[in-house]
């Protein structure tokens, strides 16, 4: 007569079957992300894009606040120029955040996170300075800071053959380099 298995072993076998059933893909559940980039690559690119988003948001907010608060003989020119820039920047923020989501990570969205992630130095805002030349200087260096971060993300994305992120960062570079040129020209 065959010996029956010890009770403990029988229990283990039952648990393993249950665990296997639990780990099996469930109908209708979200599959793991498999877009041809490793998790480490996706994370590194998403981290870079989060820093870019923090820079871009910080610059957007500064540009919009200068649109509100600019004064002086350049009012009409700058009020309209800043509006053109912040409107374009606002639309682009969404594309960057959604690229982070497509890579499988959460996009930063609080002032605390943006402050921690941004490379743009905090400078006196319009409550402390309404001098239009100072506003234009801040926006010039702000656009350049965004360009430097974009170049870092571009390099990381190129290394992973992440063409959508390369494309997005290339487009953002074109815009922010042009903004920096136009703003700097006002101070010459
Ligand atoms: Fe306005």
Please explain how this structure is put together.
The structure is a single chain. This protein has a single domain (38-186), classed as Ferritin (Up-down Bundle). It contains six helices and no strands. It is elongated. By secondary structure, the protein is mainly alpha-helical. Mean pLDDT is 89; it is low at 1-15. The structure holds fe (ii) ion. Fe (ii) ion binds at residues 67, 83.
What's this, in brief?
Helix content is 72%, strand content 0%. With 188 residues, the protein is an all-alpha fold.
**Terminal CA distance:** 100 Å
User: What is the arithmetic mean of pLDDT?
Assistant: 89
What is the 3D form? elongated
CATH overall fold name: Ferritin
Name the CATH architecture: Up-down Bundle
- Would you identify the regions where 5 or more consecutive residues have pLDDT less than 50? 1-15
Question: Quick one: CATH superfamily?
Answer: Ferritin, core subunit, four-helix bundle
Major β-sheet, in short?
A: none
Helix content: over 70%
Strand pairing plus helix content: what structural class?
A: mainly alpha
List ligands, each type once: fe (ii) ion
Q: How many H/I helices? A: 6
Hey, roughly how much beta strand do the residues contain? under 5%
Number of strands: 0
Number of domains: 1
Briefly, what CATH class? Mainly Alpha
Order of secondary-structure elements: HHHHHH
> What does the radius of gyration come to?
25 Å
